[in-house]
Design brief:
By secondary structure, this protein is an alpha+beta fold. It folds into 2 domains: 2-122, Probable inorganic polyphosphate/atp-NAD kinase, domain 1 (Rossmann fold, 3-Layer(aba) Sandwich), CATH 3.40.50.10330; 128-284, Tumour Suppressor Smad4 (Sandwich), CATH 2.60.200. It is built from 8 helices and 15 strands. It has helices at residues 16-27, 58-68, 87-92, 98-111, 137-144, 147-153, 156-165, 228-239, and strands spanning 2-7, 32-37, 51-56, 77-81, 117-124, 127-129, 132-135, 174-180, 185-190, 192-196, 218-223, 251-260, 267-269, 272-274, 280-290. Strands 5, 6, 7, 8, 9, 10, 11, 12, 13, 14 and 15 form an 11-stranded antiparallel β-sheet that branches. It has a 4-stranded parallel β-sheet with strand order 2-1-3-4, with helices on both faces. A hairpin with a 4-residue loop joins β8 and β9 (185-190). α1 runs parallel beside α4 and α5 crosses α7. The protein is globular, with a radius of gyration of 19 Å.
Length: 292
């Protein structure tokens, strides 16, 4: 089996020696590995791989899906965790140890396509969303994150960014409309919005009990008023695993389509700051296939 091992040399926990260990571990199971470094233009692929392993975080996974284009529904994926948060890898339970990962992937490959996790792919305009998107204080904090600091202290760079933001708290109202999973239209005003396609957000936290990579829908979490206290309440409830909707902290809708009345910036997609964005989130018609 031929594998592209896509790696991001700037990912939060990337180590050259670990990349070498991954190559050795997969080779022990007869897997022909071709390491492919990402560049400023995104992920680079050989075009010959039967399986793609992403050695990076959710942003590297998104770049890989973008590079696959229409082949995203054909070429299966797996993940070697090397990012700052790793939401998709956490949800799918990929081990961090290279030998354990290679053993699991080799075994899953032998079981065939029926054992793979199918994840319907949603997009913001033409951009894939593999885990989450947010607009509001959260996305402003991501825009403030220093790449150098993120490399040094990992996820704690986000904590530093949001602490710096406390003095100038952003509040911009948005008009959001769309279609619920049952086809019912909706409209809502909000100062902060999170769109979650996976079960987890910002680490091991769940905002919606219905969120899952396998769901053919996304969870829209909105705060009508995004104050400092409201945002801290949302964060605290998530950490304590309390039901944010029942507590009245936020509203949650299961959606097939989400549209914003304007391109409010900055936008956070899969942990990365996006200076430009489209207006609508919708299903792509493709489904990612994870070998687990």
């Amino acid at each position: 089996m031929r594998m592209d091992l896509v790696y991001n040399p700037y990912a939060g926990s990337f180590r050259e020696r670990r990349l070498e260990r991954l190559v050795e571990a997969f080779a022990a199971y007869g897997i022909e590995v071709r390491p492919m470094a990402t560049t400023a233009d995104g992920a680079q692929l050989s075009g010959e791989a039967e399986l793609i392993c992403v050695n990076g975080g959710d942003g590297t996974l998104r770049d890989t899906v973008q590079a696959l284009g229409d082949d995203a529904g054909r070429v299966p994926l797996c993940i070697a965790r090397a990012g700052t948060i790793n939401l998709v890898a956490r949800e799918l339970g990929y081990p961090e140890n290279p030998d354990k990962l290679a053993r699991r992937i080799a075994s899953a490959w032998e079981r065939g396509p029926e054992s793979r996790v199918r994840s319907p792919l949603y997009r913001l305009g033409e951009m894939p969303i593999v885990s989450c998107l947010s607009i509001g204080p959260d996305s402003h904090a991501v825009a403030r994150v220093s790449g150098a600091l993120k490399k040094r202290i990992g996820r704690y760079a986000y904590v530093v960014a949001i602490m710096r933001q406390m003095r100038e708290w952003p509040r911009n109202a948005m008009h959001i409309r769309g279609e619920l999973s049952d086809g019912t239209p909706f409209e809502v005003e909000a100062e902060a919005a999170i769109v979650s396609h996976g079960a987890l957000y910002a680490g091991p936290f769940r905002l919606s009990p219905r969120a899952a990579l396998e769901a053919d829908s996304v969870e829209l979490i909105t705060l009508r008023r995004s104050t400092r206290i409201g945002t801290l309440a949302l964060s605290g409830a998530a950490m304590l695993r309390l039901p944010i909707e029942r507590l009245g902290i936020a509203e949650i809708r299961t959606c097939r389509r989400v549209e914003f009345d304007r391109c409010v910036t900055p936008v956070q997609v899969d942990g990365d700051h996006m200076p430009e964005c489209a207006y609508a989130i919708a299903p792509s018609g493709l489904a990612l296939s994870y070998v687990v």
